[in-house]
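Table S2 (continued). Query chain:
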Amino acid sequence: MTLYGEEHPPPADDRPTVQVAAVTWPIEEPVRPAPVPPDGDRPRSRRFRLLLAAGVATAVLGSVGGVAVWAYAGDVPRGTSVLGTELGGRSRTDAARELRAQLDRRAAELQAPVEVRVGERTAEIIPAEVGLTVDVDATVAAAAATDAHAVDRLVGSREVEPVVSVDVPKLEAALKELMGDQGRKMTMPAITFSGTEPKVRYPKPSLTIDSEHSAEAVKQGWLSGQAVTVPLVENHPVTTSEEVDRLVAELAEPAVAAPVELTTDGGSVTIPPQAIAKGLVFNADEAGRLTPTVDVKKLKAALGSKLDAVEVAPKDATMTVSGGKPKVVAGRTGKQVDSSSLGADLLTVLPLGEGRTVSAGLKLVQPEITAEKLSGLGIKEKVSSFTTNFTGGLSSPRSQNIVTIANDVKGTVLLPGETFSLNGHTGERGYAQGYRDAPVILDGKLVPGVGGGTSQFTTTLFNASYYAGLEDVEHKPHSYYFSRYPAVIESTIFWPDLDFKFRNNTEYGVLIDTSYTGSSVTVSMWSTKIWDSVKTEYGPRRNFTSPETVYLEPGPTCIAANGSQGFTQDAFRVIKKDGKVVKREKFSWTYSAEPRFICAEEPA
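Corresponding output:
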C-alpha cells in the first residue's frame, strides 16, 4: 500500500447516461406564393411547426429535469453511499442517523487495533487511545455536496470517503514511543567563540516521523483494516555546513580580527575583539536557521567599566530615617548609550577590515525608583522594631560581620507585593565583600567560617518582619537553641543553601532601617500601621533531649561548647485589628541537643 505522494485517478464513471433525441429545426426556404387549398384542408402554418419542435424539446428537457428532481430529492443526492450505506435521498439529519447506526454495527471492526510499523518496530495502536473516529457531521456534509460533474451523474451511484478525525498529538506521541531510539534529534548548527577563536558545530538532519503524513496513513489503514507502515524521514536544518563555513569566513573571523571604535557625543570607547566575541551571537531557530545578531547587553557587560567614560548611571531615589522620621533622598537621571540600532550598526562593520567605526547617541535614563514614587508609598511611621545583643564589642570579627550586613540592608525599600531575599540582596558574603572569619555551625559543630555572626542579624531581621505582620516566605531556625534569641522565632542563614525571605503583603511600601551599638543590633520597619498589635504566645516545651559529650582534637580550629538541651516548642503569632484576633499563625521547631564539645583527647 502506498502511503504518501501517490495520486489515484477517480474510478471510471459507469453510470447510465440519459439519452436525449436530437431535434432538427426546420430550414427556411424562399417565400413562394402558396396555393390556396380547399376549405378544411389548409396546410399547417410555419408557426405551428416551430411550436411543435419547441414542445418536443421541452418534453425532453422536462424528462431530464424530472430525473434531476428525483436525483436530488433530500439533502443527499440519490446514489450516494458511505461505508457501503446508502444515504441518498435523505435529509442531513436522517443521513447522520443512518451513518451512526452503520458505525455502531461496525463498532467491533473499528475498535480493533491497527498494526503500525515504524522503522524496524511493529506495534498495535488502539483507535480510541489516539482519537480515531469518523466525523459523522463532516461526512454527511461531504456527501450532500455536489461537484462539477453533477449533471452527468444524475443517476447511478457514488461512494463518499468518510471524514476521519484523529488526535494528532496523541498519535504522534504513540508513534514516537514506537520509534524509540531509532530516531535522532536534529543537530543544530552553531558558531561560538573560545576567547576570540570561532568554534563551529555542523548541522545534522533529524530522523523522525512525518506527523502530518503519518496521521493520514493511519487513518487510511484504520478504515481499510490494513497494516500501516510509517517511514522514518530525515529533516535537514535550513543552514547547511557550507553556509556555516561561509558565516565563519565572512563574519565570525573578521569580526574579532580588530577592535571597533564607538563614538558618542560624550566621547569614544574602543570595543576590543574580546568584547565583540562576547556580544556576537549566532542563534539557531527550530528549523536550524542560523542568524547572527549582536547581543548589546552581553556586549555592554563585556565592556564593563569602559563605558563609564561616556555613560552616567541613573541613581534611584532612596529613603533614610532622620530626626525620627523617614525622608526621601532624590535620585539622579543617567545617560546611557542608545543601543536601539547599535547591534545592527555593528553587524554592518564587523565583516570589514577597515572603517570599523560606529556612532551612537546618548539618551537620558530615568531611575527606576523616583522620589515621587517613594513619596507615594505611605512610608510614614515605625511599625516594628527588634534588637538582639552580642558580646565582644565592635572590634571582634563576628561583630564586624553583623555591622557589615546591617549596613548592606539599611535603607532597603520593598514595594507592595515584593519579596525580600537576604541572600539575593547581599549576594555571596565572602572576604571580597568585607566579611571575616568567625564561628559558624557546620555539620553540627562550631567551626571557623567566613561570615559568622550574620545569622544573628538574620534573626533580628526576621523578628522585625514578624512583628510588622509581614508574610513569612522562607526561614529556618538554628539546629541548636541559643538563649540570646527568642525560641522558635529566629532564623539562620548560610550562602547559598539557606535563605531568609519575607513578603510585603500590604498595600504600602516598607523601609528597612538598621542601627547598631557596641553590643546590639536593631532592625526597624517603617510603613503605615495596619494592625493593632502583633504578639507571640508560646506553648510549653516538650520532648526534651540531653546533650552528649564529644571530644575534639585540640588545635586552632577546635571551638569548645558547653552544650544545651534539645526540645520541641510551638509559637503562635497573634495579630489583632479593631480589637479582634484576625490571624493566628503557628510556628513549630525541634531543637537538637547541642553536644558538649571538649577540645581534648578522650580520657582512657
